[in-house]
Amino acid sequence: MKRLYLLILLLCTVSTAVFAQRVALRTDLLLWGTTTPNAGVEISINRHFTMVLNGAYNAWKFGNDMKLNLYLVQPELRYWPCRKFEGHFFGVHGHYAYYNVGQIPFFSGMEDIIYRGDLYGGGITYGYHWVLGDRFSVEAVIGGGYARMEYDKYRCAGCGERMGHYKRNYFGPTRAGVSLIYFIR
């Protein structure tokens, strides 16, 4: 009989822990504004920490040889001072992207140039999370840090004339977003 009670207690404890865990699906509305489909998942680690994995992929073809092709992966560990998914949070993020962008008529200096290469680095994040209801919420996030870019520069898409290989270190804003979030329970 003791074993049966212990088994019931164990099952209740495990089921409570499993259902108390929260998983959130997310999408960044600012990236959608650049025609970049994106999605992410945020998993609760404990009361104060969550882990986020965001990804984006843009393979659209535009007229007049404009390119805005990329894929991006951005993991982040977040600390919530009060409780997870409520209010302020701080994080540490990493990022990696492969990009092929250029011939964008509304950016000065990019009308006739194509940049193709890799970007990687990391930084720190601050954000705020607003609960809209039982399953939906919105958050705003900004971040700063380091990015290393290694890329080739091309004169135009048609001629494919390579102008050179470049490496650049960047310190400054590395993250900005407004995300719509849906909780899975």
From TrEMBL:
Transmembrane segment boundaries: none
> Which Pfam family, any one, appears in the UniProt record?
DUF3575
* InterPro entries associated with the record: Autotransporte_beta_dom_sf, DUF3575
Signal peptide stretch: 1-20
What are the entry keywords? Answer: Signal
Entry superkingdom: Bacteria
The protein depicted here goes by the name DUF3575 domain-containing protein
